[in-house]
Structures are given as structure tokens and as C-alpha cells.
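Q: Could you write out the predicted structure for this multi-component system? I'm mainly interested in how the pieces pack against one another.
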Amino acid sequence: MTAIDSALQPAHDTAHGHHAKPSGIGRWLFATNHKDIGSLYLWFAFSMFIFGGVLALCIRAELFRPGLQFWQPELFNQFTTLHGLIMVFGAIMPAFTGLANWMLPLMIGAPDMAFARMNNWSFWLLPPAALLLLLSFAVPGGAAAAGWTLYAPLSTQMGMGMDLTIFAIHIMGVSSIMGSINIIVTILNLRAPGMTMMKMPMFAWASLITAYLIIAVMPVLAGVVTMVLTDRHFGTHFFNAAGGGDPVLYQHIFWFFGHPEVYIMALPAFGIVSHIIPTFSRKPLFGYTSMVYATSSIAILSFMVWAHHMFTTGMPATAQLFFMYATMLIAVPTGVKVFNWIGTMWQGSMSFETPMLFAIGFICLFTVGGLSGVTLSIAAIDIQLQDTYYVVAHFHYVLVAGALFSLFAAVYYWFPKMTGRMYSEFWGKFHFWWSLLWFNVTFFPMHFLGLAGMPRRIPDYNMQFTDFNTMASVGAFCFGLGQLIFFANMLHSLRHGRPAAAKPWEGADTLEWQIATPAPYHSFVEAPDLEVGENGRIDAMHGGKHH
Amino acid sequence: MNPLRAFAAVFCAFFGVRRGRAANVDRQLRFADLIAAAIILVALFVGGLLLLVSWLTAP
Amino acid sequence: MNKPPATLHDNRLLLLKLLLLACVMFVFAWGLIPVYDALCRLTGLGSLQRPDEVGSQRLAATPLAPVLLTFDATVQPGLPWQVRPLTRTLRAVPGEFVRVDYEITNASNRQVIGQAIPRYLPAAAAEYVKKLDCFCFAQQAFEPGQTKRFPVVFVIDKNVPAGLDSITLAYTIFDVPGRS
């Protein structure tokens, strides 16, 4: 019991233990400071982003020309599978958790996350999980090659790479559940006086709702991969038709997790954009209350639409129509959000620094992805487009131009507060325009490929698809190269950037901009008294101590 | 407190649009009322869609 | 107006509630198995293999005209099969059991596995040809040069529309690669 007691020590108790910054490797290994853990998450996510990106370039290199040039089909399938798994569970989700770790306590006036040592644990579970995925390339039979969805019966038949993948998913699931518990308890219990729920910053709202989604669906994913594991090794027949099971059952359970997962990767992005757009429009967020309600609406509806991923499994027309209409209804709250962002920019005195560029890019391209999503939701059309490149184009528009662009926007936006230095605005803008151009060169032709019938997850293709594939491959390599600009900009600015002001953005009005830059190592050791407006706007701050 | 207020709040959470003033009143709602309203509205939502669909697919 | 700051106890209570929620959702995933099972049974969604029925309403009412049946088989170029029906045509009254034999030869010098796919002309006739036994129900293995005879047993449904007086049943044989 004492071990649990000490693991659940509230943050300020441990903070009082040692005011000084710990140094050396121990600072990171035994990190309990939310800023250190946030940084760890972000660095981990970036390295996974590079790793997943290299896998993506391996895929695009093979697809540059028809025929087999570089990889055997088996290895190609491993690349597509691991690219998906690593980007979803290794890059996007940890990056959002990292940002929440860094920014939530600063935004709501908390001294740290609620359970500082559990926070350490939830981060340090991630590297072993990533290592398991990496190692799986080296085991007999190679890594999992069933696609990131790990559909049975493929996943029940593969080599031991699949076992490693299943364990990695278990570990990452535990990690994200613990991270989510921390976020929820922090937001619900540790807000500074005056920071009420309906005044809270949108990023806090989005993180809160996302955390609930994670707790609701990650255990379902853990459950279904456990069933795959028992089918593989313990003689059960959950998904084996010969033993009385049903492979379609896997898809139902998986997508019960899978669809909310889509919003786990999108809602925090909405939260970030809901800060950046008002800041650089110098206007309060339009329709804050509606934004909160729309976020919860998307979360509720996301549990009722899972079977739109399975229109071709032989569902009766009644079920197809049900899921089709329910899916289309999600466009309503999402549209509310897009209109609110546009309403925020309306008649604002806008300026276009890098975070704002990425946020506007996010709105434009996410809407394109949303629109192709509505197209896919139509059951009659989906039967034609299922498993084609149209689907690939759709989800890369919402995940790369959606989640990833919002992450870039967030990193540029909060970089001064995190490091005390400014990034290079020129290279930031260059990074944006470069990414925007090559992103579209890469993924827009995939719409045409999909409509023409090119299936996804194949290493070779018909001659007629050559031109668009070549285009996409060139775009992908240029896009990947552009991320090195981002990396170099960050590394250089970390050391040599111009010192940043406490409030580098004129229109920024949330709590994190009220404290010194860089943020003090132990911020808000004593909670401040706040007068707060909507979307976390600070009207007055009294007290509040930092070390 | 008018019991219909809980339904109004949950309905707005479905639709995604809510006035700031109304949301301030929503905060005084009891959690149990909200859950009950949510379950009833979800059932109505699913039932309504099913009705629409069965009407459309009727021979 | 402000509520008192949360204590360590409050935090732990919330932690336990959320952990409980995670556990409930894990159990829920396993609970979905019987739920889907019951749902499929109730709605009949899962039963893709339903027993077929042969229509018999018109049995006594009107005398049925015999239907002209033609049997055919094709092989895609490059595949090692030789297929021929031992009966080319016959006339059958709907409701009568019909048996015809097909002879399939593996003309290559290797082991092959074949799968026959039936085709009907006119295509609308498909639902009135009720096959009771057919070599197309399963994959068939052949030794090099082996010849096998297979029966097809079927009934023409008595509900066959009056205008449909000629049906062609054609088989195409495909290779099943990667198995031996």
C-alpha cells in the first residue's frame, strides 16, 4: 500500500521535496515534472514520426513505378501496417498527450499533473512498446502485415511479429489510459479558483473529452487483440469460422474502438486551433459554448457510427442506411466548428505568423478531408470505394493536414513559452508553404487513383495508375524532406533563438501567457485567484507563486 | 428546475449549438437527470433513424 | 462560490472511478460477443446458410411444360483442364430430379486443384435451378493426367415462369494456385 501511496503523491508534495531542477539522465528517467514529461512525450512522438515517415517513404519508393523494385510484397505489407500503427499510437496520440502534459497545468493554474509518478510511468511504457514494434521486423516472418486494423483471420495466422505487435498495443493502451486518467483528474480537480468548467480553455475541454474517449475505447481494443492472442495460442475460436467463430465479429469490436479513435486524434486538434485562430485574429472565439457542445456531440455520435467502416461485409440495407445517416449527422457539429472558426476570423485584425498559417491550412484541408468523408459515408458509393486509394486520401487529409498540421501549429505557438526562445519565423513559414504544397501533391492525386479503382495496400499496380503514383511519390519525398527543415529550425532555435517575451503573441489571452517565459520549472506552486472569461481568457490574476 | 431543461441541454449537445446564457443555467442541472435525458434521447435518436430506415426499405 | 480545493482523497477517488470505467469497458468488449450473437440470431443476420426450398404450390394446379436443358463447359486459355458434359441436352419437367455427368481431365503433368463456377443462361434462370449435389460445391484435386467423372443433381423449381423454356448450364473451371 505504501508503494501505491507514494506513487499517488500529489505533485506539489514532491515538488516541495526538491525545489532545484534535477540534473543529468535522472532528470528524465525519474521525471515527475509535467514539463519534463511533456517534453519527453514530444521528443518521443517526433522520433516516431520520423520512423513512421521513413516507412511511408519506403512505401512511396516502391509505388513510384509499377512492378516490384525494392521490396517483396510481404515486406511491403509490413511497411504499410507498421506505418499506420506507429503514426497512430506512436506519433499522433503521444504528441497530443505531451502537449496536454505541458500546457494543461499552465492553462488551468495547476501546480502539476494530478499523479506525477503515474505520469512518469505512463511515458516510460511507450519506448518499450515502440521497441517491440521495431524488433518485430527482425523476428522470423517479419513484422505484422495485416494492416493497422489487424483484421482476423490474417492476424490470427501470422508469425510471431503479430504477438509482439499485440503486446505493444497492450502496453501503449495501458500508457494512454493512465495518461488520460491523469488529464481528467487534473482538469476536474486541480483548476485554480475562478477557472470554471464553462470558462475553461478549449484545449482543456478537448483534452478532457478525448481522455474520456480513450478510457472508453482503449480497453475495447485491448480486449479484441487479446481475443486474437487467445485465438492464436490458446485454441479459442472467436474469429475462426471453422470453430464456430466469426471474422466479422473482429471488425465490429475493432471499429467500436476504431471510430472513436479517429476523434481521439481529431478533437485535441480542434482544441489547439480554437486557441490559435482567436489569438491571431485578435478576437474572442466565436460561439465558445457551441464549441464545447459540438465537441461533446462529436464524442457522443462517434460511438454510434462504427459499422460505416464495414459496408461491404454484407449488412442488411436497414443497418447500412442507419449507419449512413448517423455518420452524415456527424458533419453537423463538425460544420458548427468550422463555421465558428471562420466566424472568429471574420472582421478580425488578422496576422499570419507560422502557427496561424498552419491553423488556417488545417481548416481548409481538414474540410476537404471531411467532405470526402461524407462521400464515403454514402453506403452505395462506399461499396465502390472501399479499400481504394480514395480512402487513403480521405484519412490522410484528416490526419496529416488535420492532426499533424495542428501539432505543428501548437509547437510553433507554444515554442516561446516552452523554451524561452523564438523560432525562426522565416523557416517556419517556409516549412508551412513547403508542407502545404507537397502534401497536396502527394495526397490529392490519390482521390483520382481511388475513383479509378486502385486498391490500397498493394506493392504493384496497373500501368494506368502510373502517372498519379509517380506524382504522389515525388510529393511524399519532398514533404518528408520539409520536416527536416522543421527539425533544424527547432534544434537551432532551442540554442540560438532570439529570447522570447513573456507574451510573444499580441492576441494571446490564456493563463500560460500570464507567467514568465520560459515557464518556471515549478509553476503555480500556489494556485492563483483568477477572473476568467470564455475560452480561458484571463481578465485578472492575483497571487500564484512559482519556483 | 424544469425537467425539460435536461432534455434541451442534451439535445443541444447532439446538435452542437448552445447559447452561452443557456449553458450557464445547464450547469445547475443534476448529473442523474442529464444521464437519464441522454439515455432517452439516444434511444429516441436510434429509434427514429431505424423508423426512417425501415420506412425507406419497406417494399 | 468557489468550491474547496480537491484533496488527495478526492483525486484518488476519481482515479479509482476512472480505473473502474476502464475495466468495465474491457469487460464490455468481451460482452459484445454474446450481444452480437444474440442480435444476429434475433434478426437472422448471421445465418447466411439457410436451407433452400423448392416451390411446390403449382404442383397440382397446371400441367408443367418440360424445359429444354443444355449443358456446356468452358476452360480459360492456358489452364490444364479438359471438360465435357456426358449429356449435351435433355428435356426435364419442373420438379423432376435430373442427373447429368461431367468428365474432367487434368491434361497437365502436375497435381492441380480446380474449382468449378456455374453460370446460367439466361441469368434469371439461376434461382430456379436447385442443385442438390455438384462438383462445384468443393475444390477438386487431380493427379497428373487423371480423369474424373462428377455428377450434378438438380431440380427445376416448379415456380419457373412459363416463358422460361430453355436453360443453359455452363461450367468454367479455374485453377486454385498455391495449394497441393
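A: Regarding packing and overall arrangement: Helices of chain B lie at 4-15, 20-26, 31-57.
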